[in-house]
Design a protein that fits this description.
Blueprint: E1 10-13, E2 16-19, E3 24-26, E4 33-36, E5 39-42, H1 43-50, E6 56-61, E7 64-65, E8 71-72, E9 75-79, H2 87-99, E10 112-117, H3 121-132, H4 139-147, H5 151-159, H6 163-168, H7 172-178, E11 180-182, H8 184-196, E12 203-206, H9 212-223
Parallel strand pairs: 10-11, 10-12
Antiparallel strand pairs: 1-2, 2-3, 4-5, 6-9, 7-8
Helix pairs in contact: 8-9
């Protein structure tokens, strides 16, 4: 797929431009992040699936925010001569998408660990609840939390009357499993716990209202060779 970059006289429509020669220029980065119901993915994740098929020479996926708040991700493909976008090829694309990410060979598992070295764990717990409560409303995260055994937290969140109650519905057990909070040795133990679960490259993320620097020091100390 080639795009004519002669902008000349043109009419601009949001994310694309129709030039005076009737070519179309798509504005944006090819490595942009797409957001599907809170699930972020790179466009390359999709291209890796569809461009492995002999029938397809090139592909383009676009993330479109619609006026009603819905999110639409159309996939455009350019076919090699002699091929058609029939039910068979559509099925192959869907099957390839379902397999994507299932084979982790050659990939590092990078787990984000909300962490904080604090004298009073309640400070960090308040901060992480402020960050987490919105995720309980997203289908992908709800499914993940339920799979991990936190159906009771989801039910309590759904029954909450307001944002304050939604935050309070997140249990201490959930936070303890997700986070590394407390003294430096507690953060070090949290990093070790993620590593033992298969995280090759744990990543420390800051919790609202806490100081990241001592937390990073604790995490680095935990990762240093014995």
């Amino acid at each position: 797929m080639s795009l004519n970059l002669d902008l000349g006289e043109q009419d601009t429509f949001f994310w694309y431009t129709i030039t005076d020669r009737c070519s179309v220029v798509v504005h944006g980065r090819s490595d942009a992040t797409l957001n599907r119901h809170g699930i972020r993915m790179g466009s390359s994740d999709i291209y890796h699936v569809v461009e492995q098929f002999d029938e397809i020479v090139e592909a383009l996926v676009v993330g479109v925010e619609q006026p009603d708040g819905e999110y639409w991700m159309p996939l455009f493909v350019v076919l090699n001569p002699g091929h058609e976008l029939d039910d068979g090829l559509t099925g192959k694309i869907r099957a390839g998408r379902a397999r994507a990410g299932q084979d982790l060979a050659g990939f590092d598992i990078c787990a984000a660990i909300p962490s904080a070295v604090v004298a009073d764990p309640a400070v960090a717990q308040h901060g992480i609840r402020a960050e987490l409560h919105r995720y309980f409303g997203l289908p992908f995260y709800r499914a993940m939390f339920a799979q991990a055994g936190y159906e009771a937290d989801i039910a309590a969140y759904d029954a909450a009357a307001d944002v304050s109650a939604q935050r309070a519905a997140i249990s201490h057990a959930f936070i303890d499993d997700l986070c590394a909070i407390g003294e430096p040795e507690d953060v070090a133990a949290g990093v070790a716990r993620y590593r033992s679960a298969g995280a090759i490259n744990p990543m420390i993320t800051n919790i609202t209202g806490t100081d990241l620097l001592p937390t990073l020091h604790a995490a680095v100390a935990a990762s240093a060779p014995a």
